[in-house]
Amino acid sequence: MPKIINKTVLITSVSFGSFLLGSYYEKYIDKLNGLPQTIKKLPGLPLYGTVSAATSFSTAPTNTGSRVSQIMKFGFPGYDNIRSFDDYVLSYDRKTKVAHWVFEHLTSETVKPNKAVDRALCNFMSDESIHKYFRSENTDYKGSGYDRGHLAAAGNHKNHQKHIEQTFFLSNMAPQVGVGFNRDSWNRLEKYVRKLTKVYQNVYCCTGPLYLPKKDVDGKKYIRYEVIGANNVAVPTHFFKILVGEAADGGLEMEAYVMPNTVIDDNTPLSNFQVPPESVEKAAGLLFFDNISRAKLRKINGKSN
């Protein structure tokens, strides 16, 4: 029996020592790379959930936590590498160098343009809160033929200079076809979302990339996507937007859209891109608005639930 106890103590000590050594090593590597050494707890996350302070050019306001709670009121689609900014939240995919999802909470007041805000002062910036091994850079997009396409739309954050500047972090970007998509049909969808703030008291918007399978000549299905730049930034095959509008009486309605990342006829109605929300969840591996029972939604894609 003493031998068994001694062996157990030895294994426990080695495991704990390895944990401490690993933790120290991670902090040491982050320090070498100039990464922030502090993290803050995020409201609504499971126990031990954390979030990096993603703003690199200024100190976050003291009400950031409560703002995150507002944005994520109806649940997190996933918990991988979450970063909070002053007016939106994202989950970052280190493998693709593109966010898994970006979440926004919009109202008629927050989307109201402020004449003092100047988009011309905004610059596309590398997100240095992300380890240099896993982040995209402006050089990745140069000469690629793709736009640095916003996930949290800059037009949604024109009420405050700092808020719109934060949408220009490359962690909020994805390679998008420019003419015919990002500057046209996708832009129409973004404008439509802002108009919904005149219909609903609150609009919750989740945006992200998809990498969908396609049947090849051999009859088999493959997921294939292009990568750009030295950092191999993934080019999504499609993009999604999942919306929930909250009326003044608390009633909730949901809409879901998927658009292919290609040239689209700008006369195509947005309704052509509506899809069942569960189809996006299955494709993305995420659960959207998980705190809302679908049975409580008045409408889904304009149809009574």
Protein architecture, described:
- The chain has 305 residues and is of the alpha+beta class.
- The protein has two domains: 32 residues; 266 residues, 3-Layer(aba) Sandwich (Extracellular Endonuclease, Chain A).
- It is built from seven helices and 16 strands.
- The strands form four sheets. Strands 1-2-3-4-5-8-13-14-15-16 form a ten-stranded mixed sheet, sandwiched between helices.
- Strand 2, helix 2 and strand 3 form a beta-alpha-beta unit.
- The radius of gyration is 21 Å and the shape is globular.
Topology, pairings included?
Blueprint: H1 2-32, E1 39-41, E2 50-53, H2 64-71, E3 82-84, E4 89-93, E5 98-106, H3 138-141, E6 147-150, H4 161-166, E7 173-176, H5 178-182, H6 185-195, E8 202-210, E9 214-215, E10 221-222, E11 227-228, E12 233-234, E13 238-246, E14 252-260, H7 277-284, E15 297-300, E16 303-304
Parallel strand pairs: 2-3, 14-15
Antiparallel strand pairs: 1-2, 3-4, 4-5, 5-8, 6-7, 8-13, 9-10, 11-12, 13-14, 15-16
